[in-house]
Amino acid sequence: MPTANEVVTHMMEHDLFSQWLGIEVLEVKEGYSKIKMTVRKEMINGFGIVHGGIAFSLADSAFAFACNNRNVLSVALDTSINFIKPVHVDDVLTAEAKELHHGQSTGLYHIQISNQKDHLVAQFKGLCYRTNKQLMD
């Protein structure tokens, strides 16, 4: 059976969007992931701050890595995000996903997104559905 790190490495190799975001995986263990990325100028919205979809996408990747790293294909059932502070170009964002519930068919995760000053910029909650499929053989 593959380790949590092997599963996330496999996921990253095939996740072109996370690659485009510039995500770096910092830490992985069962039901947990910590990742980071640097905000680029093409991620800015019309108000001159980072598009909310960027923080959401970073959190969503952390969520995916945490809920799938036991090698059970899991998909999002419900997600929500609270934006707390604006994000700017060159900010380094870190998303830390922690498992709150690990059930046979569902999992609940809380993801905190912080900037390089360790300021909380967003909070994300994700509920996943666990299939009966494996990600890796």
CATH class label: Alpha Beta
Task: Report the uncertain regions.
Answer: none
Question: What's the tally of helices?
Answer: 3
CATH architecture annotation: Roll
Cα-atom radius of gyration: 14 Å
Compressed to H and E, one letter per element, the order equals: HHEEHEEEE
Q: Which strand order spans the largest sheet, edge to edge or round the barrel?
A: 1-2-4-5-6-3
CATH superfamily assignment? Hotdog Thioesterase
Strand tally is 6
- Beta strand %: 35-45%
The total tally of domains equals 1
Brief synopsis:
Helices cover 25% and strands 39% of the residues. The chain has 137 residues and is an alpha+beta fold.
What does it look like?
- The protein has 137 residues and is of the alpha+beta class.
- It has a single domain, classed as Hotdog Thioesterase (Thiol Ester Dehydrase, Chain A).
- Helix content is 25%, strand content 39%.
- It contains 3 helices and 6 strands, in the order ααββαββββ.
- The chain has a 6-stranded antiparallel β-sheet, covered by helices on one side.
- 33% of the residues are buried.
Question: What is the element layout, followed by pairings?
Answer:
Elements: H1 4-14, H2 16-21, E1 24-29, E2 32-38, H3 52-68, E3 74-83, E4 92-102, E5 106-114, E6 120-130
Antiparallel strand pairs: 1-2, 2-4, 3-6, 4-5, 5-6
Keywords, please?
137 residues, alpha+beta, Thiol Ester Dehydrase, Chain A, six-stranded antiparallel β-sheet, 6 strands, 25% helix, globular
